[in-house]
Design a protein that fits this description.
Blueprint lengths: L4 E2 L5 H6 L9 H4 L1 H13 L4 E3 L17 H18 L11 E6 L14 H14 L5 E7 L2 H14 L4 E5 L13 H10 L4 E5 L4 H14 L4 E4 L5 E4 L2 E4 L3 H9 L8 E2 L7 H11 L13 E4 L4 E4 L4 E7 L5 H8 L3 H14 L3 E4 L8 H15 L4 E4 L3 H10 L5 E6 L2 H14 L2 E5 L10 H17 L7 E4 L11 H14 L3 E5 L10 H14 L4 E4 L1 H14 L7 H7 L15 H7 L2 H12 L4 H21 L5 H24 L9 E6 L7 H12 L3 E4 L6 H11 L3 E5 L6 H14 L4 E5 L5 H6 L4 E2 L3 H12 L1
Helix pairs in contact: 3-4, 4-5, 5-6, 7-8, 9-10, 12-13, 13-14, 14-15, 16-17, 18-19, 21-22, 21-23, 21-24, 22-24, 23-24, 24-25, 25-29, 26-27
Length: about 775
């Protein structure tokens, strides 16, 4: 049983009640007493950790401020430190509270989903970290994008030695904005070396209880829980939260059984809430969590766990013996690479090996391009396959998720160069069972090398669970015992709780009927406990299903029946031509452009729009609504559709034609709010559905919005707010719109809103996501 650590609670909602009308961080200088008083109140009730008022102190949000991030962060840490010291000697504070440098989201999506470059994000976060190195720890909080989490964590690691705690904010279904589930977000955070991981904001304790239980079931580091003070409501024009201190503390007590280590609060919680929580829980022991380490690889939205079902790693993104692929690399044709990726995923590959190694190319640059392109069109996690250390470093850095690096071996040079990279970027590593003496001819020799690599990795802080051993498949044509040597090594390693992988096709090199031999070898390896196989999924997936049913692991034969009930559906090896519809759904911009040009030779532009583009966008929207695809795929589809629309518009312009717009819509993020991610997503999709959008930007005065609606005679307005402190501005904007243009419909959205909340402030429609806004616009404007 362990001790509970206590965070403080909300800051912004308390400042709002005092008349905050600027960015909260500016009060670190202009109203320092107010910030000091809040920190002091939290310290006085016994908080162990005080968050600095620096959440948004970055150069993007402060672009129009007279203060620099460093000035506000320095002042913010000094205020928190002074307040913590002032509480010493009180009955509640036995020791001085630690100071957590609060770092929040930049408010922009990163490329390729958004416009912000990854390295720029790292640099912006790095500026904050360098200014805050005199804090006691770094708290990266309220995150909704794994790529932004990675940028912030790298900045923290590269600019300080402080412990890093990370909390993220999922929706009610447990997904981040860009698609990651709880497991995927936790996998990334842990792999990059966080000291604690948790949930904050979004909802109250009761609403987040199930998500917290899920996180506690995965995490192997301390878990943080900082929920809101219930759900928001509008009372007398102010946003308030519906839990009293007593109700909040009671709900928080319920989560101790999950093994949570750090408790506190976010929006709507006050010193009274946290004080009541501490008085009830201080001295209470939490349940211990004993989660066994798992070998996991992740993308931006999904995680694959090795050691459960046999995983096929698609092998075809590799130039060896593939002249078409070599040509594609020389031509920088990422469309071909993406096509291979999509085909292999459709055929059953759960991971994709990406290799671009060939003479006369810039391998670091090409590998980065290939990894970025493939991650842009599929959520399958990737294996970064290269012997070039510079290429490995470049690709690992920009990868969104926890990759599998192929590979390290037992040679000192390899261990010394590869393992530090894997540690820094949180990668799992394929370990080849060879060293300076070559490949051992015995099972025992290969196991010994594997153990040597595992021990070397441990010295860098890389756990055994992040090492996947390749016992090395040698062709039978040189030694008929080669298969048994490899299979025995696989079995021995799996018994040592080490995950394994094999390149299957090597077994048949130099022999006839290779595919038959490969399938038989894969079945035998699977029976020995093989975790993953690098193979052609088009040829090998049948064997995976057959082995699963024969080994008794296919309940009710369901997967086998699904695979083979329609024998014609099995034939996944035949290449399928990509249509414009397919290109849009898959997010392939180059192919969408090419297919549009081809169609225009014999098809009217509006026919292409109505019969190809709109159905494809509708499909993308439906899968997004059904949560089978996520925001990155939706935006990639939108980008492909935009590429097609651009071709159509250019074609029509040359003929003196214009595509009629479906109606005018004004969009804005309301006064006081500088977050525009959600608004920008809505804008992108509305424009793809051929609406004429007037985007007024962020922090827009109500009067400016009214003037734009009157000037453009717009029938629909979309308002966005992310901060609880700016919902009042949204309500004021709605009041002015009703007075000036009562016929105009108003839709609203943002993380702090609910449907009931939206109705209360007078909106016509609340949209939980961008596609909901599109559907409402279609209803209003046709």
């Amino acid at each position: 049983m362990g001790k509970i650590t206590f965070f403080d609670g909300g800051m912004g909602t308390l400042l709002q009640s005092q008349g905050l009308d600027v960015l909260p961080e500016i009060w670190n200088i202009e109203n320092a007493q107010a910030i000091f008083d809040i920190h002091s109140a939290y310290a006085a009730v016994g908080c162990d950790v005080i968050k600095t008022n620096t959440f948004g102190a970055n150069r993007l949000k402060l672009a129009d401020s007279q203060y620099t991030p460093a000035e506000l962060i320095t002042a913010g840490i000094a205020l928190a430190r002074k307040a913590a010291a002032s509480a010493l000697g009180t009955s509640a504070a036995d020791s001085q509270a630690k100071i957590a440098l609060s770092i929040g989201s930049l408010g922009k999506l990163l490329k390729p989903v958004g416009e912000l470059d990854f390295e720029e994000a790292v640099d912006i976060f790095g500026e904050m970290v360098r200014a805050g190195t005199n804090a006691d720890l770094i708290l990266i909080e309220t995150m909704s994008d794994t790529y932004e989490i990675k940028a912030a964590m790298l900045a923290a690691k590269e600019n300080s030695d402080l412990p890093i705690w990370v909390t993220f904010s999922p929706d009610e279904n447990g997904r981040l904005l860009t698609g990651a589930d709880i497991l995927t977000a936790a996998t990334l955070v842990q792999s990059l070396g966080a000291s604690a991981v948790g949930l904050n904001c979004g909802f109250g304790p009761a609403q987040m209880k199930g998500l917290l239980a899920e996180l506690c079931g995965y995490a192997q580091i301390p878990v943080i829980f900082n929920p809101n003070g219930g759900m928001p409501k509008i009372i007398d024009g102010q946003t308030v939260f519906d839990l009293s201190p007593q109700e909040y503390a009671a709900q928080m007590q319920d989560v101790l059984a999950y093994g949570v280590s750090i408790l506190g609060g976010c929006c709507g919680t006050t010193p009274a809430h946290i004080g009541e929580l501490i008085s009830r829980v201080r001295g209470t022991s939490r349940a211990e969590r004993r989660n066994a380490p798992k070998t996991r690889v992740s993308s931006y939205s999904q995680t694959v766990t090795l050691g459960e079902d046999l995983v096929i790693i698609g092998e075809r993104i590799n130039p060896t013996g593939k002249p078409k692929y070599k040509k594609a690399l020389r031509d920088n044709d990422m469309g071909f690479v993406c096509g291979e990726a999509l085909a292999q995923v459709a055929q059953g590959a759960r991971l994709l090996d990406v290799n671009v190694g060939m003479p006369d190319i810039d391998e670091p640059q090409m590998l980065v391009a290939a990894v970025s392109a493939v991650q842009g069109i599929t959520s399958a996690p990737l294996v970064i396959d290269t012997s070039d250390i510079a290429a490995a470093a470049a690709a690992l850095r920009i990868y969104n998720g926890k990759p599998l690096l192929n590979s390290v071996n037992g040679k000192k040079e390899s261990l010394d160069s590869v393992l530090p990279l894997a540690k820094k970027y949180g990668a799992a590593v394929i370990a080849l069972a060879l060293d300076d003496d070559g490949i051992p001819e015995t099972c025992e020799g290969r196991v010994l090398i594997a153990e040597k690599i595992i021990a070397a990795a441990a010295e860098y802080g890389i756990p055994k669970s992040d090492i996947v051993v390749d016992a090395l498949t040698m062709t039978l044509s040189t030694n008929p015992k080669n298969a048994q040597i490899t299979l025995n090594a696989v079995e021995a390693l799996e018994k040592l709780d080490v995950r394994t992988v094999l390149g299957v096709s090597n077994i048949s090199f130099g022999l006839p009927a290779r595919e038959n031999l490969n399938k038989g070898f894969l079945a035998l390896a699977a029976d020995r406990g093989l975790s993953a196989a690098i193979a052609n999924p088009a040829a090998m997936m049948d064997t995976v299903y057959i082995h699963k049913i024969l080994s008794g692991n296919d309940e009710n034969c369901a997967e086998y029946v699904s695979r083979f009930a329609d024998s014609q559906a099995q034939d996944v090896q035949k290449p399928q031509s990509i249509t414009l519809y397919d290109a849009v759904i898959s997010g392939l911009e180059a192919q969408a452009t090419a297919e549009t040009l081809a169609l225009l030779a014999a098809t009217e532009p509006m026919e292409i729009i109505n019969s190809h583009l709109i159905p494809a966008l509708d499909n993308a929207g439906q899968t997004f609504a059904a949560r089978t695809t996520f925001l990155p795929q939706l935006l990639k589809s939108a980008a492909a559709a935009t590429a097609s629309f651009d071709v159509i518009r250019e074609h029509m312009a040359k003929k003196g034609q214009n595509a009629a717009k479906r109606g005018k819509i004004v969009l804005a993020t309301v006064k006081g709010d500088i977050h525009d991610i959600g608004k920008n997503i809505v804008k992108t999709l509305l424009e793809n559905y051929n609406f004429e959008v007037f985007d007024l930007g962020k922090n827009v005065e109500p009067e400016v919005i009214v003037q734009a609606v009157l000037r453009e005679n717009a029938a629909l307005v979309g308002l966005s707010a992310l901060m609880t402190t700016t919902v009042a501005s949204m309500e004021e904007t709605i009041v002015q719109l009703r007075a000036a243009v009562p016929s105009c419909k108003i839709m609203v959205g943002g993380a702090v809103l609910t449907e009931a909340h939206a109705r209360k402030i007078g909106a016509d429609f609340y949209s939980a996501d961008a596609m909901g806004a599109v559907r409402y616009a279609e209803g209003v404007l046709g």
